[in-house]
Amino acid sequence: MSKGRLYGIGVGPGDPELLTLKAKRIIESSPVLAKPVKKPGEESTAFTIIKPVVDLSKVEVIDLLFGMTGDNADYWEFGRKAGDQVIGYLSQGKDVTLITLGDVSIYSTFMYLEQYVRSKGYETEIIPGIPAFCGGAAKARVPLTLGDQCLAVVPSAKDNPMLEEALDRFDNVVVMKAGKSVEKVLGILDAKGYGPECVTVVSNVGMPDEYVGPVDAGRAYGYFTTLIVKKNFEKGC
């Protein structure tokens, strides 16, 4: 019996219409769809995104447990356990697709699982998606880079020593998962002589409660909030 293949699919930032045609085709043609969750029965944002535009009538949907502890060693262990679950299907000749928000190559739990599955002799393939910060920049009509500028991507502002260094060294900085750290980022910028006008907030891009715009002091920002910091952006005419 031939082995199945594992696909990692980025579903984009939130708008179902941003799912690629290739992603849709592979999801619909694979017997098994896996959605990472923190606990059994939990709703998956990535799954919610694709449901309106993908026919899942012939697809078995399974949960893969991935705790969000912030510990790299834990993520490798989660990847091994989820990988063994996936291999149970691949060994039967069934392809498995695993969906994730944004793009698979950017801070995705899939990569821990993928390396484990590949090390066991199974084929894998990655289907790219639109990263949240790219979708947000497009919504805001803000260039992430211009000319010879550099861009840094910081995974989180919380307890991250690289944040201040990135804001020092780079023209443009993307801060992901920044919902609870907006004031912290503004404080660091203020100490360096930059005002809040340097920051564009993109929150829940493509979702019903989407917000794209300047910092709003009265707004509560959720987990899927990204800050685009541009220290030297001047609008032309």
Written overview of the protein:
This protein is α/β, with parallel strands linked by helices. It has two domains: 122 residues, Cobalt-precorrin-4 Transmethylase, domain 1 (3-Layer(aba) Sandwich), CATH 3.40.1010; 99 residues, Methyltransferase, Cobalt-precorrin-4 Transmethylase, Domain 2. The chain has seven helices and ten strands. It has a five-stranded parallel β-sheet with strand order 3-2-4-1-5, sandwiched between helices. A five-stranded mixed β-sheet has the order 6-7-10-8-9, with helices on both faces. β6, α6 and β7 form a beta-alpha-beta unit.
Question: What's the short version?
Answer:
The chain is 30% helix and 20% strand. The protein is α/β, with parallel strands linked by helices and 237 residues long. The chain folds into 2 domains: 6-127, 3-Layer(aba) Sandwich (Cobalt-precorrin-4 Transmethylase, domain 1), CATH 3.40.1010; 132-230, Tetrapyrrole methylase, C-terminal domain (Methyltransferase, Cobalt-precorrin-4 Transmethylase, Domain 2), CATH 3.30.950.
Count of spatially separate domains: 2
Radius of gyration: 19 Å
**Share in β-strands:** 15-25%
At the fourth level of CATH, the homologous superfamily of the largest domain is Tetrapyrrole methylase, N-terminal domain
Helix fraction by DSSP (H/I, runs of at least 4): 25-40%
Q: What sort of overall outline do the alpha carbons produce when their principal axes are compared?
A: elongated
Report the uncertain regions: none
Write a concise keyword list for the protein shown above.
Cobalt-precorrin-4 Transmethylase, domain 1, 5-stranded parallel β-sheet, 10 strands, 237 residues, elongated
